[in-house]
Design brief:
With about 230 residues, this protein is mostly helical. It is about 70% helix and about 0% strand. It has one domain.
C-alpha cells in the first residue's frame, strides 16, 4: 500500500477543518439573523461540539468506566450554582449568559450520563462523533423553550408546554398534590428547580434512545473497524 505524503494529507486535513468551520459559521449567521447574540452562538458551539466529549474524556481519566451516578451528582451541583447566585453578575445580560451556560451544562451531563453503559455496545466509540447530535437536541430544546411569551407578573405555564416528554409528569404531580399555587407562582423557585430537573431527565431519555438506536445500527463486535 502506498503511503500518503505530507502534501497529499494537507487537502484532507484542510477539508476536515473547513467543513466544521463552515458549519459553525452558518449556525452563527442563522442565529444572528434570528436576533441571537454572538456570545450565545459561542456558548452553543462550545456545549454542542466541544465540551461534551472533553468532559467525558476527563471523567474517564478519573474513573473508567464512568459511574452512572456521576452525571446526576454534577447536575445537582450545577443546579446549586444556578439558584444560589454564587455565580452571578450585576449586569442583566451577563446573568442571562450565565443562566444559558449552566442550563447547557445540565444538558451536557444528561448527554454523557448514560453513555458509559452503552460505550462497549456501540462500534463507533469516538465521543467527538457521538455526542454532538444529542447535545444539539438538548441545546435546541432549551433555546426553543426560551422563545415565546414573557410571563412577567403572571403564573408560569404548564411544564408540558416546554418539556413534552417529562413535563406531563411534573404537571400531574402538582395537580395530585394540589400545590399548583406554589409551583406555578411567578418567579417560583420550586417551578424553576422542577423545570431544570425535568429538562435533565428529558435530555437523558433522548440520549438513552439515541444510544440504543446506535447500538442496534452500529453494534460492537462486527466486522467493521471501530472508529
Amino acid at each position: 500500500m502506498v503511503q500518503e505524503t505530507t502534501t497529499e494529507k494537507i487537502p484532507a486535513i484542510a477539508k476536515r477543518i473547513f467543513l466544521p468551520v463552515l458549519g459553525i459559521a452558518l449556525i452563527a449567521v442563522a442565529m444572528r439573523f434570528l436576533g441571537i447574540f454572538p456570545e450565545l452562538v459561542v456558548l452553543f458551539v462550545l456545549f454542542v461540539f466541544i465540551l461534551p466529549p472533553l468532559l467525558y474524556l476527563a471523567l474517564k481519566k478519573i474513573a473508567d468506566p464512568v459511574p452512572l451516578w456521576v452525571s446526576p451528582l454534577f447536575m445537582v451541583i450545577t443546579l446549586g450554582f444556578l439558584y444560589t447566585g454564587i455565580i452571578s453578575s450585576d449586569n442583566a445580560y451577563e446573568n442571562d449568559l450565565i443562566l444559558f451556560a449552566l442550563i447547557f451544562l445540565i444538558s451536557t451531563f444528561a448527554v454523557i450520563g448514560p453513555y458509559s453503559f452503552f460505550e462497549k455496545k456501540i462500534r463507533i466509540q469516538n465521543p467527538w462523533k457521538l455526542f454532538p447530535f444529542a447535545a444539539f437536541i438538548g441545546s435546541a430544546l432549551f433555546l426553543i423553550a426560551t422563545m415565546g411569551e414573557i410571563y412577567a407578573g403572571r403564573p408560569w405555564p404548564a411544564f408540558s408546554s416546554s418539556l413534552p416528554l417529562t413535563g406531563w409528569i411534573l404537571d400531574g404531580l402538582a395537580n395530585l398534590l394540589q400545590v399548583q399555587g406554589t409551583v406555578y407562582a411567578f418567579y417560583s423557585h420550586v417551578y424553576r428547580t422542577l423545570w431544570a430537573c425535568g429538562f435533565y431527565l428529558e435530555i437523558f431519555i433522548i440520549a438513552v434512545v439515541y444510544y440504543v438506536v446506535l447500538a442496534r445500527l452500529c453494534p460492537a463486535g462486527t466486522e467493521h473497524e471501530q472508529t
